[in-house]
Specification:
Among the domains are: about 110 residues, no CATH class; about 210 residues, Jelly Rolls (Sandwich), CATH 2.60.120; about 240 residues, Jelly Rolls; about 90 residues, no CATH class. It is built from 30 helices and 30 strands. By secondary structure, the protein is of the alpha+beta class. The chain starts with 13 loop residues before the first helix and ends with a helix. β3 and β4 form a beta hairpin. The chain is globular. α1 runs antiparallel to α2 and α6 packs antiparallel against α8. Keywords: Signal.
């Protein structure tokens, strides 16, 4: 939407007005906010968050600028009831808020000497955006133009690409050796058979004036798809995500990429590329090559105006410097102009990159994109091709990294096949670029047919070379298919066939990174839910420390080599820290007959809560975040943790743990202790899954090696089997860890989790306990690091307190594990009473925040600010010792953290009563060397002498 001079406060959106009214009502009901309201009211009412706003101080002091207050807003709405209301867009609000921050310095900008015309942000993180704002009067230039922070990988990957392909050489050749005639197009053959087309776009009478500006872009769809991979490696997804969220786009697709190379320009004219684009079609421009001794600039212009009419009427242009860490986002409606420059005296040149990004929401935008005359590719007027890109790279879980290709497209020659073939033989596909090449898109291979496109660019398999219907699959199935392809084509490097004969196993996975189980033989997925998962290095370290310090490691060895567990029975063991664990032999009947496999897990809720803290210290949140995002879970909770130890096994049975779990209940298995002189592995099995054709293969099993830095994520539906092994000759054993993770989205899943018979804890069939964990560790801001504890739980003895007390006195709580202990959950302290749970494990401060026992995590998030919640969580950790504090002799008044990492924060908490001194005051860990660096400055500048003089000499 373009600004109009008549725009006034009377056409503000009802949405913004009601927000303002609600705020005023809140202030009137909350006296503590009254003063803040008085201070904020003028700023809120001065300028509705639209195209631009005049510097706030100017507006407040100049009555002619129609200072808007609450009464004026009401009057304007009354006067304009019959006028058509124009809805404010979210980007109007965002633009105004960021404009203010540029004006008042909250967003740091370059100095006037460096940027005389615009308030240019001096430090934008990748994806950060800030509007074009005039330095002179603080008015926004236009609603759609933005500075955008770029990932450093973008220019690195793009430069590597132009160097490796020969484009860099072509740029130099165009600049100083083989200049094209004005408006001449020529096809160049580059390294690897790539074809690019260059056009001399300069010349008097054009937008680029007297210049040698050359536009270079891919000559065909092959080149376009290749450069998309460069953008993927360059992490352009961060920018796409910011653009999509800022402008509230339905979806986004990259529709073209080109290069602009030049040595000189003079008398260019200002222009807009594609009027009518508004917030739906952008050119993201950034420099790839800049001359050493010159500033390269681009002129940007417009008529700045805010909602109440300030700043309107004056059209202005001004230059802004191009920098490699920031891009210029130009809507098709944004006026811009090539600045005057001449680098020929030093035989230098500059190269800008243009990335075209579109929200293809309707036929109008489709026509605008297809009608763009700057780029050679996509072919002008090819609306069908543009439509096939819709939503490809952002929105509905789409991205460059998850790119599934364009939609099906009927590619035809506009001339007869015979005619096109004849012309192709005459070489006209490469020489007659405007005629033959555009009329014979199929024959000249400008566009791929669907079969070629899918087999060459997005291959699935030899059996199913068709395009994935991305909208007919679940999100995790689509992600699994994309990663399967990367395993097959080598984009994800895998172990050799000698090392892993059955599966394509990734060689290196970052913490939390996931890749599906894929058969080496037929390159198909084993099942839709099974995944390799990269583990944080801290996880193994923390788990090792835990089992050593607790004495669990002694139990592992005792079970396997000392026979401390009677045959076929479970036994309760007390470990060093007083916690109780139960070991069960699985060797008699069932899936592990012929094995000495023991299952060891906590005997009660206290041990379970302690195990969660080990996972927290092991950065298990990284794994939970990946699982939740990959499977688009509603929420996640860790529902159990156990250990499996064994020295030998033979002829174990293949099985699934909990059928019906699908993507909602997982067992993450990873090795804690591996034999030094042998290999530990696990068999995985399934029916080869073809996500596209739906035609499944045969069921088979294969072994995969267990490695310390990789976990196996097994759904309750994933078939697996303990392999044959025997480590007794070398007196070794293996220990695996199982972490159970569940999306407790419905009662069906809760019953599956509660009915799992492998673990001793949680108590089998205790659905209420499982339900109390829902959403505890991932989703809606929850995590292990911010764990608020379980929900309220009524813990009762099934046999009644009197009988259970008698049984406890006879030692049955510790000896009769299946009957007494499971029937006396309260008396035997298997589960913790709510009062003890809240006071011992998740102590509450009644003056600050509701305890987890009185409200769900979601309610806490709704009823408090983020910093209040974080303050409360860290207060609890100081009080219960999870954050160690300095001894009382050294700090008698406060719980002062012993160690804080760089930037880590902790609130001021009174030692006496455990309450927070202030919500806004914090201890902060400082970077090592900061103090020393400041001391150096003080010494060098003579500040110490000044300090001493002030202290003693006055």
């Amino acid at each position: 939407r373009k600004p109009t001079p008549t725009m006034t406060a009377g056409v503000m959106s009802l949405r913004l007005f009601t927000r303002l009214l609600a705020y005023i009502l809140l202030v009137s009901l909350h006296p503590t906010l009254a003063q803040q309201h008085v201070e904020d009211q003028n700023e809120i009412s001065t300028s509705s968050c639209s195209f631009s706003g005049k510097v706030l101080e100017d507006v407040e002091t100049d009555s002619s600028n129609r200072l808007v207050n609450q009464h004026a807003l009401e009057e304007d709405f009354d006067q304009d009831d019959e006028e058509e209301e124009e809805e404010l867009e979210e980007y109007d609000v965002q633009g105004e808020l960021r404009r203010r921050k540029l004006v008042d310095g909250r967003i740091a900008t370059f100095s006037k000497e460096e940027e005389p015309f615009f308030l240019v942000p001096s430090n934008l993180a990748p994806g950060d955006m800030a509007p074009f704002v005039w330095r002179e009067d603080g008015i926004q230039v236009c609603p759609f133009g933005q500075f955008v922070g770029l990932p450093h990988e973008l220019t690195t990957e793009m430069y590597t690409f132009v160097k490796d392909t020969g484009l860099l050489h072509l740029f130099r050749e165009l600049a100083y050796e083989s200049r094209l005639q004005r408006k001449e197009h020529r096809l160049f053959l580059l390294n690897g058979g790539r074809e690019y087309i260059a056009m001399n776009a300069g010349g008097n009478g054009t937008n680029w004036g007297d210049s040698d500006l050359h536009w270079v872009d891919a000559a065909d769809e092959r080149g376009f798809e290749e450069v998309l991979q460069v953008l993927k490696r360059g992490k352009l997804d961060q920018v796409l995500n910011s653009i999509g969220e800022y402008f509230d786009s339905e979806s986004l697709a990259v529709t073209g990429v080109g290069f602009v190379a030049a040595t000189r320009s003079r008398n260019a004219t200002d222009h807009a590329d594609n009027t009518g684009s508004q917030e739906n079609f952008f050119n993201l421009m950034f420099p790839l090559i800049l001359p050493n001794d010159y500033n390269s600039t681009l002129h940007v212009g417009g008529i700045g105006r805010d909602l109440v009419g300030n700043g309107g009427g004056e059209y202005r242009l001004g230059p802004v410097k191009m920098r490699q860490d920031a891009g210029i986002l130009l809507s098709g409606d944004t006026a811009h102009m090539t600045s005057d420059f001449d680098y020929r005296s030093k035989r230098q040149f500059r190269v800008f990159v243009s990335v075209y990004i579109a929200n293809i929401k309707n036929d109008k935008i489709k026509k605008i994109v297809a009608g763009d005359g700057t780029a050679y590719f996509p072919p002008a007027g090819m609306e069908e091709w543009v439509g096939a890109q819709k939503g490809r790279h952002w929105g509905n879980e789409q991205s460059l990294i998850n790119d599934v290709g364009r939609q099906p497209l009927a590619v035809q020659d506009s001339l007869s096949s015979e005619n096109c073939l004849q012309r192709a033989k005459q070489g006209k596909c490469k020489s007659d670029l405007k005629g033959t090449r555009m009329s014979c898109l199929k024959t000249c291979k400008v566009l791929f047919s669907d079969d070629e496109y899918n087999s060459k660019l997005f291959p699935l398999s030899q059996e199913a070379p068709q395009l994935i219907d991305a909208w007919g699959m679940k999100g995790f199935e689509r992600r699994g298919e994309l990663r399967r392809r990367e395993l097959v084509d080598g984009s994800i490097q895998t172990f050799s066939k000698e090392e892993e004969p059955f599966f394509l196993v990734p060689k290196a996975l970052r913490a939390g990174e996931m890749a599906p189980f894929v058969w080496r033989e037929d390159e198909q997925q084993v099942c839709p839910y099974g995944n390799f998962v990269g583990l944080p290095p801290e996880l193994s370290t923390e788990m090792h420390s835990f089992v050593e310090e607790s004495g669990l490691s002694e139990i592992f060895w005792g079970l396997t080599y000392e026979g401390i567990l009677p045959s076929g029975k479970g036994k309760l063991f007390q470990v060093h820290n007083g916690r109780e664990y139960i070991a069960i032999s699985t060797s008699y009947g069932g899936n592990w007959e012929g094995c000495d496999l023991y299952w060891i897990d906590t005997a009660d809720e206290r041990g379970y809560e302690e195990a969660l803290r080990v996972l927290e210290r092991g950065n298990f949140d990284q794994v939970l975040d990946s699982i939740g995002q990959y499977f688009q879970s509603d929420s996640l909770a860790v529902t159990g943790l156990g250990f499996m130890t064994a020295t030998h096994c033979k002829s174990a049975k293949a099985h699934t743990d909990n059928p019906g779990s699908e993507e909602n209940f997982f067992n993450l298995v990873f090795p804690l202790l591996l034999p030094e002189d042998d290999v530990a592995s696990l068999n995985l099995g399934g029916t080869s899954k073809n996500n596209h054709s739906g035609v499944d293969g045969d069921f088979h099993l294969g072994s995969v090696q267990m490695r310390p830095d990789v976990g196996l994520l097994l759904s309750g539906d994933t078939t697996h089997q303990t392999t044959d092994f025997d480590f007794r000759a070398s007196q070794e054993l293996r220990v695996f860890v199982s972490v159970y993770v569940a999306d407790l989205k419905n009662t069906g899943i809760e019953k599956i989790v509660a009915g799992d018979g492998t673990a001793f804890f949680p108590p089998k069939g205790k659905v209420e306990w499982v339900e109390a964990q829902k959403g505890r560790h991932w989703g809606n801001g929850a995590s292990l690091a911010n764990d608020m504890g379980r929900s309220e739980l009524d813990v009762e003895d099934e046999l009644g307190p009197e009988l259970c007390s008698v049984l406890k006195k006879t030692g049955k709580c510790n000896s009769d594990l299946d009957e007494t202990r499971m029937s006396c959950l309260r008396t035997c302290k298997v589960l913790i009473d709510d009062n003890e749970y809240g006071s011992t494990y998740f102590r509450k401060n009644p003056n600050k925040i509701k305890d987890r026992m009185e409200s769900t995590t979601e309610e806490i998030i709704q009823n408090t600010t983020v910093h209040e919640a974080l303050t409360e969580l860290r207060r609890r950790k100081l009080v219960d010792g999870r954050i160690p504090s300095v001894e009382s002799e050294d700090e008698p008044y406060f719980l002062v953290p012993e160690v804080l990492h760089d930037g880590e924060m902790a609130p001021f908490v009174w030692r006496e009563d455990g309450k927070v001194n202030s919500l806004y005051s914090q201890f902060v860990g400082l970077p090592f060397g900061l103090s020393g660096a400041l001391q150096e400055v003080a010494l060098e500048d003579g500040l110490y002498d000044l300090f001493e003089m002030l202290a003693y000499d006055k």
